[in-house]
Each structure stands twice: as structure tokens, then as C-alpha cells.
Design goal:
The complex is a heterodimer of chains A (414) and B (49).
Chain A: H1 5-32, H2 38-65, E1 68-69, E2 73-74, H3 98-116, H4 126-149, H5 154-158, H6 166-184, H7 200-219, H8 227-255, H9 260-274, H10 283-306, H11 315-333, H12 351-382, H13 389-394, H14 396-401, H15 410-413
Antiparallel strand pairs in A: 1-2
Helix pairs in contact in A: 1-2, 1-3, 1-7, 2-3, 2-4, 3-4, 3-6, 4-6, 4-12, 6-11, 6-12, 7-8, 7-9, 8-9, 8-10, 9-10, 9-11, 10-11, 11-12
Chain B: H1 6-24
The chains are: A mainly alpha (414), B mainly alpha (49).
């Protein structure tokens, strides 16, 4: 098996792009919270980047991609990156070193639990967050990644299409976020005061950097530097743009003014939705997917507000619902004209693909919800999930980390 | 590839809907809100040069 220099260079560059997405997410979320919690929110992403990088090398990669057991989980044969060397593994990527594939996948494993942090922002105890993240990556992310992407995974064998993580990354994190928000309960003052973003410029910058990194996420998932990566790049950009335009327009219609943070959120929603479809749909399909994401995610946020669930930064609405829409849309718009190794969707004469996608969505929802609930209850037995009331009032930057984000403004916030 | 397949028609309709909306959407004038933090003139900076 011969290593291709161009493919390897692209996958390593794409890994670096995806790596950037996690701190970018920290800034996206950081701008949305109140000033007294911005540093702790950024820390969630930065800490997870470090934590899961180590977990992935030690056992995460092996559980997700190692030799299959019953279609459910990989074995520990590749723990410590044992047997993960410079030769390609044809089961995953035939033209790049196995290690390059494992590095690329590491960045996906990193960002997924970081996405959940938006749901429990401004109230979760740091120690509980550490334990939860490690357990969640091991017992929720790694198994779902194996089902969908692992050689021998049961959804993989059924023919479920998920190019870059609609089910594995976005449904799993979005649904887990909803469960976490319900288990932790609402923030103090939720429903009485409106929690405005403390720095929308930070949020827009974070969204722009996410958009940039997403080219690695989706186009990198081609695992080769060629036509498929180019197509994935194109549809990713188009769906993001259409998501931003649609969300802004819907919010303009709903609230009489075009929202800036809405446009940023819409771009992210479009990116989420195109993720599973990016290697299977043409550019016209990506326009419909971006449009749908802008509508359904906006509606989901207002539904979430109506039922008074405090998913602080709307992870469920954007990632859970956006990922669900993207996974279903893949079953509608996939075409072998883009990816001859995949399958057509309903609109191209293959209704079975839509059923397989619905099954993958249902399985990801059910397992993520149950797994997250159990993990939170276990962690809660050892460490209180929530900070004390006075710590929440003081803010997590000071109460959990002893560092204010903006020293001059300390008095105003307290 | 058929240029007038269902996906293309849906994409065209989606774009038309969004673009057409901009022609008719109202624009509410912003209500000026009192600044929550008192604005102060920037203090002079002394430099060694």
C-alpha cells in the first residue's frame, strides 16, 4: 500500500483546520455568555482539546476504529496507538498513513464533547465537567463513531451515510446537550432576566473561524486531495452561506430586524446540516440543506424557549436538530454522481436510503440520550454537577478558576 | 445530470423565497437604549518619547 504525498498533506492540513474549530467554538460560545463566565466557557473547549487528545491516543481511537466486536465497539488492540503506524490502513484510508487518519479523527473526537458545553454553560462545576467529558467521550462518542465509521460497525454495514459526522458528532452532542440541560436545571434568573451575549463580536469571529475550520472537517473527510474533497468544500461553503441568509431572513421577518448573531448562528446551522451530506450531495442539494437548516434550527430555538429548557447556548437546536435534518436530507439528496462509492437518496430513486438514515438518526438519539443521562447521574454521585448558588452568582470565572476575564470590569459584574 | 431535477427546483425555490423576502420585509427603527455603562472620554496617555 503506497502513501500518496498529496493526500497525506491535505489530511494533515485538514486536521489542523479541524483542531482550530475547538478554540473557535470557545470564542463562539464565550461571546454568548455573560462577562463573568466567558473565561470558564472558553476553558471548556481549551481543556477538552487537551483531555481528548490524550484519551484518543490511550484508548479512544482503538474503541472507535479498532478491530470490531459485534458491530458495537472496537477492541483495545490499538490502545496507545499500538499498530497505528505509517502504513495505510485500507479499511479507512488507502493512500495516507494510518496515523494521519487517526490524527484527523482525533480532532473530531475533541470537538464533539466541546459542543455539549454550551448547554451547561454558566452553571456546571469544573470537576464534574472534567469527569463527564472523559466518560462521555469513552462511552458515548467512541461507540457511536464505531457504529457509523468503524470497519464492521452495524450502521456502517447497513449502509448509513454520514460523510463527516451528522450522527456521530452533531446528533450525539446536540441530544446529549438537551439531556444535560434538563438534568442540571435552569440557571438562576432564567426566564426572569434576558441573558444577553456579552460580546457579539467575539461570537461572530468564532463563527467565522468555525466556518474556516469546517473546510477541513468536511473536505478533509474525503481523505484524498481530489474531486470529492473539492465538491465537499463547495457544498460546505454554499450551505453555510444559505444557512446564514435564511436564518437572518427568518429572524428579520420574526423580529423586524436582521440579527447579526442570528446570521452567525445560521451559518453554523448550515455547516452542521451539510456535514453528513457533504460527500454525497451536489451544490443544488446543499442550497436546500442550508435553507432547511436556517428554518428548522430557528424554529427549534423558539420551541426550546417556549418549553423553558435552559440549553444555554442552543446546542440542541443547532446541532441536534441541524444534524438530524442533515442526516435525513442525505437520504433525500445523495447522488452517486458525486460519490460513486455511496448510494442514491430518495430524490434519485432510492427510498431505502432514507429509511436507513432514519434508523441511524433514531439510534444516535436514543443511545446519546440514555448514555448521557446515566453518565450524569454517575458523576453526580461523586461530584455535584452544579456549582453552589453563590458561586453561580459570582460567576464561574472567579468561582471555578480564580481568574476574571476582564479585570477592569470585575466590580460591575459582581 | 438533469438540470431540472427535483433538487434543482427546490434549491431555486429556496433562493427565490429568501431573496424575494428582502423586498417586502419591514425594517423597524431601532429604539435608542440608555447605555448601561457610563461612557467616559479616553484619558490622555503619557509616553516617554
Amino acid at each position: 500500500m503506497k502513501v500518496n504525498a498529496g493526500d497525506t498533506a491535505w489530511v494533515l492540513a485538514a486536521s489542523a483546520l479541524v483542531m482550530l474549530m475547538t478554540p473557535a467554538l470557545g470564542f463562539f460560545y464565550g461571546g454568548l455568555v455573560r462577562r463573568k463566565n466567558v473565561l470558564s466557557t472558553i476553558m471548556h473547549s481549551f481543556f477538552i482539546l487537551s483531555l481528548i487528545s490524550v484519551q484518543w491516543v490511550l484508548w479512544g481511537y482503538s474503541l472507535a476504529f479498532g478491530p470490531d466486536h459485534w458491530g458495537l465497539i472496537g477492541g483495545l488492540d490499538w490502545a496507545g496507538f499500538n499498530h497505528v503506524g505509517f502504513s495505510p490502513n485500507p479499511d479507512y484510508a488507502a493512500t495516507i498513513p494510518h496515523q494521519a487518519f487517526a490524527i484527523f479523527q482525533m480532532m473530531f473526537a475533541v470537538i464533539t464533547p466541546a459542543l455539549i458545553t454550551g448547554a451547561f454553560a454558566e452553571r456546571k462545576r469544573f470537576k464534574a465537567f472534567v469527569l463527564f467529558s472523559l466518560l462521555w467521550a469513552t462511552f458515548v462518542y467512541d461507540p457511536i463513531a464505531h457504529w457509523v465509521w468503524g470497519a464492521g460497525g452495524w450502521l456502517h454495514n447497513l449502509g448509513a451515510l454520514d460523510f463527516a459526522g451528522g450522527t456521530v458528532v452533531h446528533i450525539s452532542s446536540g441530544v446529549s446537550a438537551l439531556v444535560a440541560a434538563l438534568v442540571l436545571g435552569r440557571r438562576l434568573g432564567f426566564g426572569q432576566a434576558k441573558f444577553e451575549p456579552h460580546d457579539s463580536t467575539m461570537t461572530v469571529l468564532g463563527a467565522a473561524l468555525l466556518w474556516f475550520g469546517w473546510f477541513g472537517f468536511n473536505a478533509g473527510s474525503a481523505l484524498t486531495a481530489g474531486g470529492l474533497a473539492t465538491s465537499a468544500f463547495l457544498v460546505t461553503n454554499t450551505a453555510a452561506a444559505m444557512g446564514a441568509l435564511t436564518w437572518m431572513t427568518v429572524s428579520w421577518w420574526h423580529k423586524q430586524q436582521p440579527s447579526v448573531t442570528g446570521a452567525a448562528a445560521g451559518a453554523v446551522a448550515g455547516l452542521v446540516a451539510i456535514t453528513p451530506a457533504s460527500g454525497f450531495v451536489n451544490v443544488m442539494g446543499s442550497i436546500v440543506i442550508g435553507f432547511g437548516a436556517g428554518v428548522v434550527c430557528y424554529v427549534a430555538i423558539h420551541f426550546r424557549e417556549k418549553v423553558h429548557v435552559d440549553d444555554a447556548l442552543d446546542v440542541w437546536a443547532v446541532h441536534g436538530i441541524g444534524g438530524t435534518w442533515g442526516a435525513i436530507a442525505t437520504g433525500l439528496f445523495a447522488t452517486v454522481a458525486i460519490n460513486s462509492g455511496a448510494a442514491n437518496g430518495l430524490f434519485y430513486g432510492n427510498p431505502r436510503q432514507l429509511l436507513v438514515q432514519l434508523l441511524a438518526v433514531a439510534a444516535s438519539w436514543a443511545y446519546s440520550a440514555a448514555g448521557t443521562f446515566v453518565i450524569l447521574k454517575i458523576v453526580d454521585r461523586f461530584v455535584n454537577l452544579r456549582v453552589e448558588e453563590e458561586e453561580e452568582v459570582l460567576g464561574l470565572d472567579l468561582s471555578q478558576h480564580g481568574e476574571p476575564a476582564y479585570a477592569r470590569l470585575l466590580k460591575e459584574d459582581a | 445530470m438533469n438540470t431540472l431535477d427535483a433538487t434543482t427546483i427546490l434549491a431555486t425555490l429556496s433562493c427565490a423565497l429568501v431573496f424575494a423576502a428582502w423586498l417586502v420585509l419591514p425594517h423597524r427603527a431601532a429604539t435608542p437604549a440608555a447605555p448601561s455603562v457610563a461612557l467616559r472620554e479616553r484619558e490622555g496617555v503619557t509616553t516617554a518619547a
